[in-house]
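Q: Structure for this?
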Amino acid sequence: AQKITQTQPGMFVQEKEAVTLDCTYDTSDPSYGLFWYKQPSSGEMIFLIYQGSYDQQNATEGRYSLNFQKARKSANLVISASQLGDSAMYFCAMRENYGGSQGNLIFGKGTKLSVKP
Amino acid sequence: KAGVTQTPRYLIKTRGQQVTLSCSPISGHRSVSWYQQTPGQGLQFLFEYFSETQRNKGNFPGRFSGRQFSNSRSEMNVSTLELGDSALYLCASSLAGYPRQPQHFGDGTRLSIL
């Protein structure tokens, strides 16, 4: 079973509009972290935002915010005021904390975002 | 602060050969992880090293191996290359012991097998 599901293979958004990228996850570990990364065509993975399972507030980083709904096991990324440079692949990832180790990242399949001028 | 450095950026090999990829983590980061990215399988975890010890391993055959040196630099080796090993190999480093800290990725090594 997939641990991270991103149901939108591709999305289009008009420049300056907001867009939401969906992510649902599956874990039985009460302690976990959720990450969003951006991967431009150059290949580098760029960290955007983090949400811990015990965090009471939704994470925000500049134009990025995370809509964290723990009971529904969803962690959607919201990008406000889209820019042309936001066109890229976006990956949702989870890190489970087991046995005291931080554990590796488990990635979703990604969503390709295209921003239209 | 310098980021994660991976060398080489591109490699072309033939089936049956072996290859070694290198990764220098961000200064102070002691945890280094390797990932394989392909169009079909997406991003898959290979292994993680911390203090020269493999701490975690993904579901890859024994042809994939790695090591970490005392300065935290890491190498990944793939022996008896197969066509399916063509992929982008990403290295990531992080501050161990700080779960909120993200993994920081290098630009990757793009390996093509002919």
